[in-house]
């Protein structure tokens, strides 16, 4: 790419568009979004699978970059949508991990650190992993894209290609189940804080 400094100043849409002619411009998009996407994938599937999810997400994005709607300046919802599809393929593994952690002895020394460096599933408490395992995949995706992916409702709608009202109803359903499952635990206030958007 001719000028990296200029590329760093471009919007995501401009980078994707430039990558049609100069594929190396896509590397700037990777550098810009891979760390947050990695944290999200780590929380969903653990560290080992996160690398694969991020790699596959950007491979799919690169292969289909001409399908990106240049009307959106931010590629995060598009990338998180691809990541959600990649994670969806690994859903059975994810559910198995949640259920295994829910059956494990109560980890009294483990705490949830939402601002920590990608705590992964091992840092979650039993009620939370049990609740996540019981959620429908669509409800879980919405909840976790908002809480862990830090997307807005509108960005989640764009990422999952669903109406905004569906995002709200899925989040409401997931919150109700979370409140019931996490009642009396410190995780309830953390989930409510993470999902206020």
TrEMBL record:
Protein name: DNA-directed RNA polymerase sigma-70 factor
Gene3D superfamilies listed in its UniProt record: 1.10.1740.10, Winged helix-like DNA-binding domain superfamily/Winged helix DNA-binding domain
InterPro entries: RNA_pol_sigma-70-like (IPR039425), RNA_pol_sigma-70_dom (IPR014284), RNA_pol_sigma70_r2 (IPR007627), RNA_pol_sigma70_r4_t2 (IPR013249), RNA_pol_sigma_r2 (IPR013325), RNA_pol_sigma_r3/r4-like (IPR013324), WH-like_DNA-bd_sf (IPR036388)
Domain called RNA polymerase sigma factor 70 region 4 type: residue spans: 128-177
Lineage: Bacteria, Bacillati, Actinomycetota, Actinomycetes, Streptosporangiales
Family recorded in the similarity comment: Belongs to the sigma-70 factor family. ECF subfamily.
GO biological process assignments: DNA-templated transcription initiation
Protein keywords: DNA-binding, DNA-directed RNA polymerase, Sigma factor, Transcription, Transcription regulation
Domain RNA polymerase sigma-70 region: from-to ranges: 29-93
Top-level taxonomic group: Bacteria
GO molecular function: DNA binding; sigma factor activity
UniProt source species: Sinosporangium siamense
GO cellular component: DNA-directed RNA polymerase complex
Cross-referenced CDD domains: Sigma70_r4 (cd06171)
């Amino acid at each position: 790419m001719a000028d990296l400094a200029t590329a760093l100043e471009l919007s995501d849409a401009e980078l994707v568009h430039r990558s049609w002619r100069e594929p190396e411009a896509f590397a700037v998009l990777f550098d810009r979004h891979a760390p947050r996407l990695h944290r999200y994938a780590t929380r969903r599937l653990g560290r080992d699978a996160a690398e694969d999810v991020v790699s596959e997400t950007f491979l799919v994005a690169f292969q289909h970059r001409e399908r990106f709607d240049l009307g959106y300046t931010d590629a995060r919802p598009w990338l998180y949508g691809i990541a959600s599809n990649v994670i969806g393929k690994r859903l059975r593994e994810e559910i198995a991990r949640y259920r295994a952690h829910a059956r494990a002895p109560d980890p009294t020394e483990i705490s949830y650190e939402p601002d920590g460096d990608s705590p992964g599933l091992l840092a979650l408490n039993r009620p939370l992993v049990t609740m996540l395992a019981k959620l429908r995949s669509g409800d879980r995706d919405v909840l976790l894209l908002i809480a862990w992916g830090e997307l807005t409702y509108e960005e989640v709608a764009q990422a999952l290609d669903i109406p905004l009202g569906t995002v709200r109803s899925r989040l409401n359903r997931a919150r109700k189940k979370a409140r019931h499952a996490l009642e009396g635990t410190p995780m309830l206030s953390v989930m409510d804080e993470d999902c206020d958007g």
